[in-house]
Amino acid sequence: MAVDPRHQGRKAAAALYELVLELGEKINLPVYFESSPSVVNLYKKVGFQLLSDTVVHKAEVLGTEKDIQVPLMVRMPSKAGISFEEWRSSGYPKFGTREVSYVGGQAEKAKQQIVTKVVGLREAKSAEISP
């Protein structure tokens, strides 16, 4: 997820990640993303963990002077009861039997909400670009 620089500072990213966090809670799965180094502390404040792993974007691909190291962050669902590192080291087991109860209509409804928001954002962007 990225926000066009012209629209940054308007809480667009917050609206999107709140929707994704809600979906993660409903289907009992972690939410993972590659963060900008400048906003790591912001995401820590809302419950994300900074992982020891990073991704390196190569300078030649980005057209920059230096490679850029990107922090990885994750937020576990509240029902997990363990950290991401504990979950990963144990082979990514399911978080109990309640997981299946979220797969039905709630997950589908949340998925539809995301699709609707994305389509709405696309339509707004198209209207902004159209002459």
UniProtKB/TrEMBL annotation:
Protein name as it appears in the record: N-acetyltransferase domain-containing protein
Residue span, N-acetyltransferase domain: 1-69
Gene3D superfamilies found in the cross-reference section: 3.40.630.30
InterPro entries on file: Acyl_CoA_acyltransferase, GNAT_dom, Trichothecene_AcTrans
One example GO MF annotation: acyltransferase activity, transferring groups other than amino-acyl groups
Organism: Xylaria bambusicola
Top-rank taxon: Eukaryota
